[in-house]
């Protein structure tokens, strides 16, 4: 029996970090909200959030169903998949380290989202445009370099092309997605930032060439970036750091 | 050999979620940055962040040293302590569920922090006061109720006074701290919000009465809330939702 992924059907968003891991495992899964004929689509997803049907209702998508287990929170889902499919070390120390890196990526994802929604995720971008400009400028000048240089430093000492060395983990797949997303959202700023992070870029390229990931990226299952997701391209936010 | 906790010495901040768990375990620990004579204080903490001394440098405090292990990211540290000291179930399903709740609390913590720093954590509150007012109003009207009602709902169906039922987990200690912090930061708004979350408040009260926690809260080890931490009281942000 395969996995069921529940996430918004028209964006990459946080669900994409899970999709990439699922694709890399090669396991079969249904992206439920995108396949309304199979499991009922978005309405089914919403009933899980209502919490009447399930023992452990998630706060928000994405969440993953695996038999009787329902698991929410992106990093938690990845922890679970990593454990089951060799996308993280087997020993506790390696597992915690992988998860620590993932949680740092999760922190970065929040900051990326807030560049276009610094005041409220319930308001349109247009209603917080001036604040977004200030926040994006700060992000590109201070925060993005701080995070990216951190991962570069981890790669410098990992002894391999991946964050933990020679073996791929789910954190590598997520860092690939960060590079993809930042290139989409801030092509101008990112072109400059990339010069200082050759190992992060090499990791990105290695992940893109993995057979299952390469096949996924050119498939219809990979949703294009757009201005509803976490990584959004607004010219006015893409300033030079 | 006891634990070494590394966190900023003058605030509760994210470190407090770890301090509460350590206190509840009854294990001995050194709060290194607050005890410069014992392990070198803040300068020692900084050298870990530089990453030359350690194999797995954390991105930011808090981090915990346990023998040769160095663990960063609040939720990750709690996962580790929960596993070792019975502050989470032993089976994978229960462990993942506890962690999922903790990660949802972590999301809430980011939103609480951003009520006073919506533009940049590198700027003073005074430099983002107008934006903070907008963000805090949105937070108190929409986001705080959404999170708090979620936890109330989880408690409704847990079958006990704690999030997982009758047994305390680290997520309960963190939810206690959320109530403490929101009461400090937004006394006016929180007085109203509390009416809809009697089970969350009862959980708070139960945690406060646990012998080790009660002793901790009246000790010198508990730093008072102040305007440098995550929960800050600014009268102008404490609007009625």
Question: Quick recap of the structure?
Answer:
The structure is a homodimer of 241-residue chains. Chain A has 241 residues and is of the alpha+beta class.
Can you lay out the helices and strands and say which pair or pack?
The structure is a homodimer of 241-residue chains.
Chain A: E1 3-6, H1 15-25, E2 29-31, H2 36-39, H3 41-50, E3 63-66, E4 69-72, H4 74-85, H5 92-116, H6 129-156, H7 170-185, H8 187-193, H9 198-209, H10 211-217
Oligomer state of the chains in this structure: homodimer
Query: Numbering strands along the chain, what is their spatial order in the largest sheet of chain A?
Result: 2-1-3-4
Most extensive interface between two protein chains, with residue counts: A-B, 42 and 42 residues
Structural class of chain A: alpha+beta
Distance between the termini of chain A: 48 Å
Mean pLDDT level of chain A: 96
Question: Which spans of chain A have pLDDT < 50 for at least 5 consecutive residues?
Answer: none
Shape designation of chain A = globular
Q: What is the CATH first-level class name of the domain at 92-210 in chain A?
A: Mainly Alpha
Radius of gyration of chain A: 18 Å
In what range is the share of β-strand residues of chain A? Answer: 5-15%
CATH topology of the domain at 92-210 in chain A: Glutathione S-transferase Yfyf (Class Pi), Chain A, domain 2
Proportion of helical residues of chain A: 40-55%
Per CATH, which architecture of the domain at 92-210 in chain A?
Up-down Bundle
Note the main sheet of chain A. 4 strands, mixed
- Quick one: how many beta strands of chain A? 4
Order of helices and strands of chain A: EHEHHEEHHHHHHH
Count, helices of chain A: 10
